[in-house]
Amino acid sequence: MKGMNPRESRYVTVAKIAYRLTKQALPKYSHAKSPHHFELPQLAACVLMMFYLNVSYRDMEEWLLATDKVCQALGLLRIPDHTTLQRTYQKLRNLDFEKLKNRILEEENIQEESIASDSTGFSPGQASLYYQTRSGRKYEHWIKGAYAVGTQSQYILSWQSGYGPSNDVAHLNALKRGCARFGTHTETGQRTWLMLADAGFDAKKLSPLDIIPPVRRHGKLLHPERKARADLVATARLDGLFGQRWKAETVNSVIKRKFGDTIRSRTVRLQMREPIIKAMVYNIHR
């Protein structure tokens, strides 16, 4: 109708954000002697869009053929082949996704007073639970993603991936290092932000600012430090602070419902990368 502002598709918006971030964080071409049919940021943005849509490489190629506005937003003069997208995903490193994540968080000026951590598992294959039950070949292992989430912004501030079943405490220090720059500090640089996590992240050496319930061995707490931490967690529960940890559970749910709860890659290296790129796509979606 005349006088109405046209509404921009969210796919176009996501494509613009992804392309802007990739142009800032990645080189123009992956190699000086590459064919130069496409720029690396264009292809990387296509890969991010593919995971955002939760489609295969072939379906992404067909989707781009049908979406002129997204191609225009990405500056594509021709449509990349599905094999080109697959090779691009192989070329991207964890460090590249780390740069993309830091870019978007710095733009949003994220400074969190409390950060919640949790992990979730992704199925390593496309087989349905019904097929697994009938065939008697249930998955005994899965790919795990561990995320540190800002309780105020609900952005993912740091991430780790690994194999499950395993203890979450193995990811705790890496998560804390990754999100430290986005937590609050004093003028002298002393940490003031709180880490909220469940008992799966319980460790022998924790900071007084880590609000993590201690695991009760045989139902008892003997060490004075563990008793003091249990009292601290109980107080945080009464104050409603520890309840903020559920926001990490919410983020896990959004990732698995919107971007899929399965892993499509077959090599271990690419399997470990999928929980990370799903988290990056979530931050763009956020």
CATH class of the largest domain, please?
Answer: Alpha Beta
Rg measurement, Å: 21 Å
- For the record, give the distance between the C-alpha atoms at the N and C termini, rounded to a whole number: 30 Å
Number of helices: 11
* Largest sheet data: 5 strands, mixed
Instruction: Report strand order across the widest sheet.
Output: 3-2-1-4-5
Level-2 CATH architecture of the largest domain: 2-Layer Sandwich
Q: Which structural class best describes the helix and strand composition?
A: alpha/beta
* CATH third-tier fold name of the largest domain: Nucleotidyltransferase, domain 5
Shape field: globular
Mean pLDDT: 90
Provide the helix percentage: 40-55%
Uncertain runs: none
Beta-strand residue percentage: 5-15%
The number of distinct β-strands equals: 5
Overview of the structural elements:
- It is a single chain.
- By secondary structure, the protein is α/β, with parallel strands linked by helices.
- It folds into two domains: 10-92, no CATH class; 111-285, Nucleotidyltransferase, domain 5 (2-Layer Sandwich).
- It contains eleven helices and five strands, in the order ααααααβαββαββααα.
- It has helices at 10-25, 40-53, 57-65, 68-73, 82-91, 94-107, 129-135, 172-179, 224-239, 246-259, 268-285; strands spanning 114-122, 142-150, 156-164, 194-196, 210-211.
- The chain has a five-stranded mixed beta sheet, with helices on both faces.
- Helix 1 packs across helix 6 (94-107) and helix 6 (94-107) packs parallel to helix 11 (268-285).
- The longest helix has 18 residues, at 268-285.
- The chain is globular and about 65 Å long.
- The model has no long low-confidence stretch (mean pLDDT 90).
